[in-house]
Amino acid sequence: MRAVAERLTLPLKVGLRRTSGNVPGAGAGSSIDFQDHRPYVPGDDPRHIDWPAYARNGQFTMKLYREEVRPLADIVLDASASMFLDEAKTRRTMELAWFCLESVLRAGASARLFSIRGPSLAAHDPLVAWEALEKPSATVSGPPDLHRVPWRNGSLRVLISDLLFPGPPESLIHSLLSSRGRALIFAPCCTAESAPDWLGNTELLDCESRARREVRFHADDLRNYSAAYEKHFDAWRHEARRHGIPLAKVGAETTFNEALGQEAIPQGAVEFM
User: Does residue 8 surpass a pLDDT of 50?
Assistant: First the structure.
């Protein structure tokens, strides 16, 4: 993921909170990187008057310097059991978590990391990151309670979640955007959930509750499942688009770069360096 983060990055410089830092912003500020001149107006800081220019033409002009900002990034990993459905999805989930962390650290941003399972929230040290995260064994019901996350004012909120829980997305979207925040959503997915091969007598195991159920599937049942699956993600895409949140499904059966190229890069969730 360090190698990937040398070419691709999260859009950390868009809509940054205007605080002192070490990343060049888009506006004028007080760094040592000279940007332009403008006429002096009463109330301007006299320390930024261009005195050599005044000696030449008798006009007060102000030196403008490039603004410096420090991005704030709060990364939240949904650690519910469905995120570790099989080996491929487990790998893609952890790759997304590590890529987001590497991208934030390379940008000189202030990173905070959390994992969440339903109402249970855990903070992680950025130096240790996700190494202590284990595949959940306890039963957890319900969506991740993002209202428990102590979002920082104006931070970029990165949610890594497969979004496979019931209910409308509005509540979680509103939490992601609270306190003037921006948001990105990465949804790892695999063919075992998007295009299952259930036909005939099948035993289903609920990965969250561990309940088992015998079901007989017909072709119409699979078509209905596929339609419900797409409708679920259409609702998430619609709500994310309405609030200007890039949402990208990231498939588990291709290389990481190929998976990002399918939705994450076109949607603006990831950009080239």
Answer: yes
Structure token pair of residue 156: 């970029």
127 and 231 fall within a common domain: yes
Structural domain contains residue 49: yes
Entry pTM: 0.79
Q: Does the pLDDT at position 33 exceed 80?
A: no
Strand (E) or helix (H) holding 183 = strand 182-189
Q: Classify residue 102 by its DSSP letter.
A: H
Percent of the chain past pLDDT 90, that is, above it, reads: 59
Residues 181 and 97 placed together within one structural domain of the fold: yes
32 and 137 belong to one structural domain: no
Q: Are residues 171 and 249 in the same domain?
A: yes
In terms of C-beta density within 10 A (0-12 exposed, 13-18 middle, 19 or more buried), how is residue 50 classed?
A: middle
Cα dihedral across residues 36, 72, 263, 147: positive or negative: negative
Q: How far is CA 24 from CA 55, 177, 201, in A?
A: 31, 24, 60
The H-or-E segment that residue 181 falls in is none
d(Cα 188, Cα 248) in Å, to the nearest integer? 8
Q: How many structural domains compose the chain?
A: 2
Domain housing 51:
23-69
Contact of 201 with 146, CB cutoff 8 Å: no
